[in-house]
Each structure stands twice: as C-alpha cells, then as structure tokens.
Amino acid sequence: xTSVSDPASAVIAVTGASxxxxxxxxxxxxxxxxxxxxxxxxxxxxxxxxAAGVVRGDLTDSSALERLVAGADAVVHIGGxxxxxxxxxxxxxxxxxxxxxxxxxxxxGVKRFxxxxxxxxxxxxxxxxxxxxxxxxxxxxxxxxxxxxxxVRPPGVYGPGDRAxxxxxxxxxGGLVVMPGSAQARFSLIYVDDLARALASLVExxxxxxxxxxxxxxxxxxxxxxxxxxxAALAGRALGRRVRVLQLPPGLLAPLAWGSAGLxxxxxxxxxxxxxxxxxxxxxxxxxxxxxxxxxxxxRPRVGFTEGFTLTLQWYEKQGxxxxxxxxxEEAE
Length: 333
Hints:
By secondary structure, the protein is α/β, with parallel strands linked by helices. It has one domain (11-224, 284-327): Rossmann fold (3-Layer(aba) Sandwich), CATH 3.40.50.720. It has twelve helices and 13 strands. The chain has helices at 20-31, 45-50, 62-69, 87-107, 128-143, 166-174, 192-204, 228-239, 250-267, 275-282, 305-319, 326-332, and strands spanning 11-15, 35-40, 53-56, 74-77, 112-116, 148-153, 156-158, 176-180, 186-187, 189-191, 216-217, 244-248, 285-286. Strands 3-2-1-4-5-6-11 form a seven-stranded parallel beta sheet, sandwiched between helices. Helix 2 (45-50) links the parallel strand 2 (35-40) and strand 3 (53-56). It is globular, with a radius of gyration of 20 Å. The N and C termini lie far apart (50 Å). It comes from Aquibaculum arenosum. It holds the Pfam family Epimerase. Residues 12-208 form the NAD-dependent epimerase/dehydratase domain. This is NAD-dependent epimerase/dehydratase family protein.
C-alpha cells in the first residue's frame, strides 16, 4: 500500500481542530509525523504546539478557508455543528461551508479531501442535522467532482474529553440509564482515538479503497452493534455493579423536546433535546455495517466498548467530572 511519499513535507489542512474529534485527530496526525495546519478562532497553546501552522478565523470566513488550504496536500474537514438554535444553521455551517471549502481546495490545487460526516447522514429525513450531513456529502461532489474524496461516517463517538456523552456516562455510573426508543434498537459506537487513527491512516495512504468517494461507515468492530441492555451489562461489569436500563416511548418525551425547542428560540441557545434529536435517538437501527477493509490496516478499530468505557470513565474521574466509582475507591484503599 503506497504511503505519503514525504510525510515531513506534507501539509494537512484541518478544520474543527479545537473540537473533541479534531483535537484527537491533530494529535494523531502529529504523532504520525504529518504537519497539520489548523483553523482556530482563539489561541490554544496545546493545539498550536502540535501544529505546523495556524490560520486565525472560523468556518464562515472565506478568506481564512483560502489561507488554510493554500499549498496543502490534503484537507481533513471535521468542523461543523452538532447542535443549533435554527435548522438553517445546520445547513449553513455543515453543508454550505463544506461546499465553499471544497471549492477553495480545488482552486488551490489540493489533491485530496477527507470529509468527516456522520452515520446520521444515512437517514436525512430524521432531523435538520442529519439532512445537513447528507447535503454536505453531496456538496463535496458538486463543488469539485474531480477532487479525490473520502467520506467517513462515524457512529456515536466517545472518549476522554467529551462533554456530549458525559451525561450518558453519569447515568451508567449511577446505575440507571433512561433512553427513548425500543428495547430492540441497536447502535454502533467508536472510541475517539480509533476514529482519529482511521483519519490519519487515510491521510497517509492515498490509495486506500475509501478514497473512491463512497461513504465509509465506521464502528468499533462490534458486529451488529449494541442494544442498551448489552451496553449496560458491559458497563456494569467494569463498574462492579448492576446497571439498569429504562426505555421510554418517544411520545412521552415529545412535549419536552418541543418545549426545549421553544426555549431555545427565546434564549438563543441550542436545545437540550430537540424534536429532531429525539427522532434520532428513537431510530431503531444505527448499526454502522462498517467496512474496515476499505481502511488501511493500521486504521482499523482496536478499542472495544469495555476498554473504551473504562479509559473514559477513569479520565472523567481524574478530571473531577465524575466521582470515583465504588470499585476504584476500594482499589485505592
């Protein structure tokens, strides 16, 4: 498998570097000897120490996007919105920005464009977020049909440093998980470092099968994904306690979702749970049906949920985001 010929001189333009996935990806690219050039709105000494260059600006700044891709060998586009006040914001940031960035990359002579999409793009009818991720994939093709493209669709991403999945870890650690949907619903997951490794491996290997432009679903290697009951059992074994699951009919939470959306419009802050997010959570099949053979061998998943849960829980506890679990308190005594 052919690799990047001279990693020390390759410039990799990265958006979303300050986010959860972006930070892990920048660290992985740097560890592989690649040179990430990152787009940042605000100073971030830890990130900047890993980067070969920094462009000040944000995703809506066309001039900053042009500076970011100038002279780059590849683009890794991670930046975007996962929550928003208005549905139009998802389209403006996730779709329109992708189209502008791809056009800027093509005009600058960039050879490859790696888009981090979402498994939600598989069901665009469920929510404005899902629709915007699907539209972003199409926008990439529309903006530069001759550009060499890879599109990855991660499922739920978790790991140290993630605040989005912290509430779920709190429930697991507390022994009771409350989720909308059917007990038969199944879903896939991926540990953040596995995702970052997959992205870095694709950057290093331009002849990997994933560069054909067809979306590549990712997961942690658990065939058939998980049911919440299975996830609770795995977490319970790691915690040394029983973890119960309460599945609620989505209709019971619909008034909460609509009320949260109304408050969001008044406050100008994203809703805690929107109607679209509720439909995503209640969807019965988020199994990735991953295609690891389309990734370079070193980019394939290594971390299963039991290990990933333990590593993440330990990180949360060390940072004080969660109290130390009983089993680890006993080990420390």
